[in-house]
């Protein structure tokens, strides 16, 4: 979400892999259309969206506190990771196992992060959409190859070079070589640079459509997290807030690696569509302390001996009430993601309450038509009817009613469509925790509360609890009730 109060994009709420913070996480899938029946028995088109190692990390005195009531630190032989199934969060993966050890109550913070087993590296997309050209370099020794063929190698730093790919031919500075994949791999303590930012690990370049290319950072998991936390939280926030988010973000990253990442060139993005990631350039002593003090610790849920990692989403501010994951995607109803908790500790968020936003119906219809084929069959939007809502009154499913077939979709999808293709006023639509009021030629989104989808950990709420003395374990237990902490080897 790129810090706990920045404006979200059409990300942490786009069902496919649902992102961690406020919007949907992950690469959005193409919407599927299924037949349904409207409240009056008429035809309804129901739209569903199917189910990113330092040489000397800073030593910060921040020992993990002993576990308290809530999440349990248990000893188990292995942790099975959920498989990617569009309509379920918790499904078995084919033989996908991650070894675990008990998460100790005092987790040491080594100066150099040890490589993780199994999910040791994540692949983070740094260019979205693809880039037509970019500037790359290294801080030290490197090796540059195209399809395994050596293009350049040096013990000195690679000077800045412009890279592009045209017709299957890579041009990197003055060097040209035909091939599919270019790989810039630093040596020793060297790092790669892309667009002025430093990144640990290697940089993988793959051709994309229309002579563009994708830049993917292959980076060690714990180093990745050290570059995520400072982009998601304020620098002055409490260690317990950082530790709690480190666990949630690690769980989110691993879940994506073993689900959507299996069929994609990358596991995560570097922006609001996933988890914000700033590479080594963003790392801080506080982020490394939180990563080291929770090293390898993840959230899991299920019967004893059959626990599974789940999609541990989070958002900036829930606005006073945590939402269940079902409000934004086809999520299996499990206790950690059921929502319903009252959370007033996020009241300091500038968007805890926000003023009404009025958007013309024609603009709403135009934004929906840009994303959903079924909406293009409507030429005039008459009204939006709430079909189902949470016990707290937050709309879940709505009917878009006009002069064509009624279209049923999630309320959250209206916000995402408006953020992507709506008028400037739509950028103030901070969440769908609001009331939709028909104002003739416009819809007013009134009584707005919170920022983001409100599922899982509330960043501002976690900080409020940390200031009251809550530990990271207590914070996680509140936002993901029934979950258990495990350490992935």
General description of the model:
This protein folds into 3 domains: 1-117 and 223-352 and 450-489, no CATH class; 131-211, no CATH class; 353-449, no CATH class. Strands 9-8-13-16-17-6-18 form a 7-stranded mixed beta sheet. The protein contains 7 helices and 31 strands. Residues 7-19, 21-43 and 48-117 have low confidence and may be disordered. A hairpin with a 3-residue loop joins strand 27 (435-438) and strand 28 (442-446). With 489 residues, it is of the alpha+beta class.
Question: Which characteristics define this entry?
Answer:
single chain; 489 residues; alpha+beta; 7-stranded mixed sheet; 31 strands; 16% helix
Topology:
Elements: E1 32-37, E2 43-48, E3 72-73, E4 78-82, E5 92-101, E6 121-125, E7 134-138, E8 142-146, E9 149-154, E10 161-166, E11 169-172, E12 175-178, E13 182-186, E14 192-194, E15 197-199, E16 202-207, E17 213-220, H1 221-232, H2 239-258, E18 268-269, H3 285-293, E19 297-301, E20 308-309, E21 314-315, E22 353-354, E23 357-360, H4 361-371, E24 381-389, E25 395-402, E26 406-410, H5 411-421, E27 435-438, E28 442-446, E29 448-449, E30 457-458, H6 459-467, H7 472-479, E31 484-488
Helix pairs in contact: 1-2, 1-3, 2-3, 2-6, 2-7, 4-5
Total domains:
3
Mean pLDDT: 81
Unreliable residue stretches: 7-19, 21-43, 48-117
Strand order across the biggest sheet?
A: 9-8-13-16-17-6-18
What is the alpha-carbon Rg in Å? 23 Å
Instruction: Characterize the largest beta sheet: strand count, sense, and whether it forms a barrel.
Output: 7 strands, mixed
């Amino acid at each position: 979400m790129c810090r706990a109060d920045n404006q979200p994009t059409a990300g942490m709420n786009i069902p496919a892999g649902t992102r961690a913070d406020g919007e949907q996480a992950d690469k959005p899938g193409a919407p599927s259309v299924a037949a349904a029946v409207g409240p009056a028995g008429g035809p309804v088109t129901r739209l569903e969206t199917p189910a990113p190692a330092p040489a000397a990390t800073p030593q910060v005195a921040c020992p993990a506190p002993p576990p308290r009531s809530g999440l349990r630190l248990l000893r188990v032989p292995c942790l099975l990771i959920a498989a990617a199934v569009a309509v379920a969060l918790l499904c078995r993966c084919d033989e996908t196992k991650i070894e675990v050890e008990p998460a100790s109550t005092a987790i040491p913070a080594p100066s150099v992060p040890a490589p993780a087993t199994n999910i040791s590296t994540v692949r983070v997309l740094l260019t979205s959409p693809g880039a037509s050209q970019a500037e790359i370099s290294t801080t030290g020794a490197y090796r540059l190859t195209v399809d395994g063929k050596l293009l350049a190698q040096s013990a000195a730093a690679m000077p800045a070079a412009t890279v592009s790919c045209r017709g299957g031919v890579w041009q990197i500075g003055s060097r040209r070589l035909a091939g599919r994949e270019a790989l810039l791999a630093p040596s020793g303590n060297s790092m790669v640079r892309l667009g002025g930012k430093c990144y640990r690990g290697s940089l993988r370049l793959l051709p994309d459509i229309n002579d563009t290319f994708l830049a993917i950072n292959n980076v060690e998991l714990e180093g990745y997290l050290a570059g995520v936390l400072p982009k998601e939280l304020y620098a002055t926030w409490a260690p317990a807030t950082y530790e709690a988010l480190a666990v949630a973000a690690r769980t989110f990253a691993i879940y994506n690696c073993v689900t959507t990442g299996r069929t994609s060139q990358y596991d995560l993005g570097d922006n609001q569509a996933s988890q914000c990631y700033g590479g080594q350039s963003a790392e801080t002593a506080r982020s490394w302390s939180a990563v080291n003090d929770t090293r390898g610790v993840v959230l899991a849920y299920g019967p004893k001996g059959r626990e599974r990692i789940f999609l541990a989403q989070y958002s900036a501010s829930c606005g006073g009430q945590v939402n269940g994951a079902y409000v934004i995607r086809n999520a299996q109803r499990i206790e950690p993601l059921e929502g319903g908790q009252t959370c007033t500790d996020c009241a300091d968020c500038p968007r805890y309450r926000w003023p009404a936003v009025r958007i013309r119906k024609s603009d709403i219809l135009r934004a929906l038509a840009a994303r959903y084929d079924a909406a293009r069959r409507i030429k005039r939007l008459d009204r939006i009817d709430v079909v189902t809502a949470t016990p707290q009154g937050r709309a879940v499913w709505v009917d878009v009613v006009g002069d064509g077939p009624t279209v049923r979709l999630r309320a959250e999808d209206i916000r995402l469509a408006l953020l992507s293709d709506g008028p400037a006023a739509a950028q103030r639509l901070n969440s769908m925790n609001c009331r939709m009021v028909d104002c003739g030629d416009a819809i007013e989104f009134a009584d707005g509360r919170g920022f983001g989808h409100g599922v899982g950990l509330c960043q501002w709420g976690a900080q409020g609890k940390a200031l009251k003395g809550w530990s990271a374990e207590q914070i996680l237990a509140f936002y993901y009730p029934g979950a258990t902490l495990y350490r992935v080897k």
